[in-house]
Amino acid sequence: MTQLPDCPKCGSKYTYSDETNYICPECAHEWPQAAQIQGDDDVRSIKDSNGNLLQDGDTVTVIKDLKVKGSSLVVKVGTRVKNIRLVDGDHDIDCKIDGIGAMKLKSEFVKKA
């Protein structure tokens, strides 16, 4: 049997696995099983507004009206953005939005669809 990690929030040793997440029954903290790989320097962990791990090619939904700098256009709440690409920097999502074009978004303003 494999050794499950202790809870990173409360340190409990009674964690259990549920599909792709680890769950702590004492403090109800959940974290992705992929989080164990984060020890590598090459691995980026970019999360959406709900804490879900994002990957290249995911589809996300905008959770807040976003003004497009240098334009009168606005990306409305609920806009679905398909096939995102994760990049380094302050704006960590590179994408194309229908009707607007190529943009960079911050992961804190999107949720995984």
From TrEMBL:
Residue ranges annotated for the Protein YjdM C-terminal domain, each copy included: 46-113
Domain Protein YjdM N-terminal intervals: 3-32
Pfam families per the UniProt record, alphabetical: YjdM, Zn_Ribbon_YjdM
Domain of life: Bacteria
Family designation: Belongs to the YjdM family.
UniProt-recorded name of the protein: Protein PhnA
Organism, as annotated: Methyloglobulus morosus KoM1
Lineage: Bacteria, Pseudomonadati, Pseudomonadota, Gammaproteobacteria, Methylococcales
